[in-house]
Write a structure and sequence with these properties.
Starch-binding associating with outer membrane, Serine Threonine Protein Phosphatase 5, Tetratricopeptide repeat, SusD_RagB_dom, 16 helices, cell outer membrane, TPR-like_helical_dom_sf, SusD-like_N
Length: 550
């Protein structure tokens, strides 16, 4: 982890100087004198958001907050990297990564404001397109920030969001606006972007359809289901994008965005300029590939349980178990135990198996247990009869490499672009999400047929059975949210899907998030910890910022 820490320390000096406000970024009027200047500042805004090869910039740090505080990953140990406070919900007020996210985001916002203020709409198609891209980028940043620092829209529009800085005046230092006001600005900006952008550019630039796609998500978060459906329809019915096939889906991250028919908008990372040695990238935490990457964060057991319901699911290929070279047959399961403090621990148990008399056994605490099979319509389950007379279900596989007792279920969803170990271009919106946005909106309107039809589009592509009705014991919304979890895992959406739907997050699975005293076994949607603290450095610069509650 040392390389990541060195990068963060360097960035903290550059972008977190407590004497400088992010609003102070002011381009020369000479640069903004003509259309070339507009293009220059727009490219600069993309660059601020995309970040760099050493984990700097907006997205690189935002991603850690969005994804690590969900329930799809487990970290196999502790780290001094500040992202650990996202993962274990022990938020701190001087988190370096949080400050970089705030600083980079507002620098980009100010850049967008400058472009919007200096150039008139209607001059020509190119100017309108670039202005539209700036409106889109500003909306994207505000949407990201209000969900990081403000409570979900569904929990109250009068809660504090983030400052609405929409002018290019450096003396304009607004306090925090309400969540509702920030969302109103996001919708306004995206509609303006939709209107202005009419040039057909590649999907590494904002576009009319990218604005409509993001509007679908924004309206879903606002629980404006009719509008979420309307804007999902616009994207789906445009015919411009196509879902990758079941065969191609596992190689999603290996493609450059421009050659991916499903990607609507992505930040493009190039192997020359945006990639150093690969050790500070998002993917480097998930896997060691070609000798590059820490490989210290793995798919969680609850995510694995969900996706293993259908072993033929194409999305399971994003998960790559790191087997030992000896290929020892084992069974394994997660067992709840009691730690020294009297709390619950969840630990993986691996036991070598052997064959005797045509049956499979393992030995635990001097007792031989037979492994039985149970055939279901979709898979074969394995179990043994435990000491209390019940069934303990297990997985039958080969032994795996482990770190601190955690098996290395590597995640390859953020790696291997163009065959380079940890190169990846983050996808901001893609077509599959549009079907799932629409499905959730239909579910909330009580339209079971349409909701299941959209879910089934995604399940058919994944190669798993479709639904003809809502399964017994589930609700329609559960079905949709499970499919969102399967499809959008490791894309930074799961946390928000849980809390905006006023659900508690179950984190009762193996991982270092349960270390220490009073861990969060469950994160209530009402908890203060689901929102991040305003960086203390920013409050020192701007005293009118009200801190989030402890």
């Amino acid at each position: 982890m040392k390389k990541i820490l060195i990068s963060l320390i360097a960035l903290s000096f550059v972008s977190c100087n407590t004497d400088l406000s992010p609003y102070d970024s002011k381009e020369s009027d000479v640069i903004l004198a003509d259309a070339t200047g507009l293009q220059t500042i727009t490219i600069g805004n993309y660059a601020l958001l995309k970040g760099d090869a050493n984990a700097g910039g907006f997205f690189n740090n935002l991603y850690r907050f969005n994804e690590y505080s969900g329930d799809n990953v487990n970290i196999s140990g502790v780290t001094s990297d500040n992202f650990f406070y996202y993962y274990n919900y022990r938020n701190i007020k001087n988190n370096v990564r949080t400050n970089i996210t705030w600083n980079s985001g507002y620098k980009a916002i100010v850049g967008c404001n400058r472009a919007i203020a200096k150039f008139a709409e209607g001059t020509d198609a190119t100017t309108d397109q670039l202005l539209g891209e700036n409106y889109f980028l500003r909306a994207y940043v505000y949407f990201s920030l209000v969900n990081m620092f403000g409570r979900p829209y569904s929990q109250g529009t009068q809660n504090l969001g983030v400052p609405l800085k929409i002018s290019d005046d450096i003396n304009d230092i607004p306090p925090r606006a309400t969540v509702g006001a920030v969302y109103d600005q996001i919708v306004s900006d995206l509609k303006k972007a939709e209107l202005l952008m009419n040039i057909d550019k590649s999907n590494v630039y904002a576009s009319k359809l990218a604005a409509e796609a993001l509007l679908s998500r924004v309206y879903l978060y606002m629980e404006n289901n009719d509008k979420a459906i309307e804007y999902a329809d616009k994207v789906i019915n445009s015919g411009k994008y196509m879902l990758l096939s079941k065969t191609d889906l596992p190689s999603y991250s290996t493609k450059v965005p421009e050659s991916n028919t499903e990607t609507i908008f992505a930040f493009k990372y190039n192997k020359d300029g945006d990639y150093a040695d690969g050790w500070s990238t998002v993917g480097s935490m998930y896997a060691n590939i070609q000798g590059v990457g820490w490989g210290e964060m793995y798919a969680s057991s609850t995510y694995l349980d969900l996706i293993n319901q259908h072993p033929e699911d194409a999305r399971l290929k994003f998960i790559v178990p790191k087997y030992t070279t000896s290929q020892v047959p084992v069974v394994y399961w997660v067992q709840q135990e009691t730690n020294s403090a009297g709390g619950a621990n969840y630990n993986y148990k691996f036991q070598p198996t052997f064959i005797q008399g045509g049956n499979t056994y393992f030995t635990m605490n001097g007792v031989n247990y037979q492994v039985f099979t149970e055939v279901t319509p979709f898979k074969t389950n394995y179990y043994f009869n435990n000491s209390t007379g019940g069934k303990t279900y297990v997985y039958s596989d080969f032994d795996m490499d482990k770190r601190n007792g955690y098996p290395k279920f590597f995640v390859y969803k953020c790696s291997q672009q163009e065959g380079i170990a940890q190169l990846w271009s983050p996808v901001i919106v893609r077509l599959a999400e549009m079907y799932l946005n629409r499905a959730e909106a239909y579910a909330k309107k009580g339209n079971t047929t349409s909701a299941l039809a959209d879910v089934n589009v995604i399940r058919t592509r994944a190669g798993i059975p479709t639904y003809s009705s809502v399964p017994a014991g589930q609700t329609l919304l559960n079905v949709v949210l499970d499919e969102r979890r399967l499809e959008l895992a490791f894309e930074g959406q799961r946390k928000f899907d849980i809390f905006r739907n006023k659900l508690d997050m179950n984190r009762q699975y193996p991982g270092s998030h349960l270390n220490g005293s009073n861990p969060f076994y469950t994160v209530p949607y009402t908890s203060n910890r689901i929102v991040e603290y305003i960086p203390e450095q920013q409050i020192q610069i701007q005293p009118n910022l009200i801190q989030n509650p402890d």
